[in-house]
Every structure is written in structure tokens, then in C-alpha cells.
Amino acid sequence: MNLENTCPVLTPAERQVVDAIGRADRVLMETVHNALDDATRQAAEEMMSVGSPEKPPAFAYFASVVHQRMFCLLCGADPETMQGGDPEMAARILENGRNISAHYWNRTNSRDEPQSFTVQQAASIRDNPVASGEETT
Fold first, then answer.
1. pLDDT tens per residue, range 57-92
2. Cβ neighbours, 10 Å, residue 15
3. Which of the residues 9, 12, 70, 108 has an alpha carbon 20 to 30 A from that of 85?
4. Distance between CA atoms of 106 and 5, rounded to whole angstroms?
5. Which contacts (CB < 8 Å, 24+ apart) does range 32-40 have?
6. What is the residue-wise DSSP string for 30-74?
7. Residue 85 · residue 76 · CB < 8 Å
8. For residues 86 and 103, what is the distance between their CA atoms, to the nearest angstrom?
9. Predicted TM-score (pTM) of this structure
């Protein structure tokens, strides 16, 4: 529950709760971002050490892995096998994503025409650091 947006004047106790959750959220996101950076770097180093000619996966690849596994966890599915999830919960989560997209990015995705990446688009993101949001040097 977001007390800051639902309650115009917070009590001191409510303010402490909001602040504690906010701090924990910032630490969580910093930890996740650092883990994604570490995984990206580790894969690149290990691939180079074995002489692989392949490009290492981009940051976006590992972010997608985390996204898929968290989606499974939220749906009650096993993140390794993707089995056992609640399809109703999955639909609610997907609808939430559509609502965020429409509200913040002024995009609308028709329920009749789900948007998804093609294999070529996913490869393009992996192979293009700019498209994946990675910094280039």
C-alpha cells in the first residue's frame, strides 16, 4: 500500500513506515542492478577466457531472465520449469504492465493483439548495446 499517495497527511508512525519501505526499495534495486552488471561482466570474462567468438549477452539479456523468473514467482510457478502458475494472476500482471505502458509511455496495446519480441528483435537488442540501454565506450 502506498500511504504517501493515499493519505494526504501521514502520522509520524506512517511516515517512518513509508521511509523504511522506500529505503529498502532503493537498496533492493541497487542490489539487483549491481547483480545484473556482475552477471554481464562475468559472462563476458568467462566467454573471453575460453576463446569464444560469440558476443557475450548484453545487460538486457540478464534483466530479461530476472524478469521472467520474477514473473513466475509472482504467478506461483516454478521459475526453473515455469510449471504450476496461476493463469489468472499472470493475466493480472500482464494487464498491469499494459496499464503502466499506456499511462507513462502513452502506448496502448490491444488485448486482441499481444505485443511480443520476435527472435530477430531479441537478438538485435542483445547485439546492440544502445538498444539494450547499455552504455558504450
1. 999 999 999 999 999 999 999 999 999 999 999 999
2. 13
3. 108
4. 22
5. 32/66, 36/62, 36/63, 36/66
6. HHHHHHHHHHHHHHHHHHHHTT--SPPPPHHHHHHHHHHHHHHHH
7. yes
8. 26
9. 0.67
Question: HSE-up of 86 (CA within 13 Å, CB side)?
Answer: 8
**Residues with Cβ < 8 Å from 45, sequence gap 6 or more?**
none
Q: Residue 105 corresponds to which amino acid?
A: W
What is the distance between the terminal CA atoms of the chain, rounded to a whole angstrom?
41
Residue 47 CA to residue 123 CA, distance in Å, equals 18
From CA 90, how far away is CA 68, in angstroms rounded?
Answer: 11
State pLDDT tens for residues 39-48: 999 999 999 9
Tens of pLDDT along 14-23? 999 999 999 9
- Burial group, residue 16, by CB count within 10 angstroms (0-12, 13-18, 19+): exposed
The position carrying cell 561482466 is: 41
**7: amino acid identity, one letter:** C
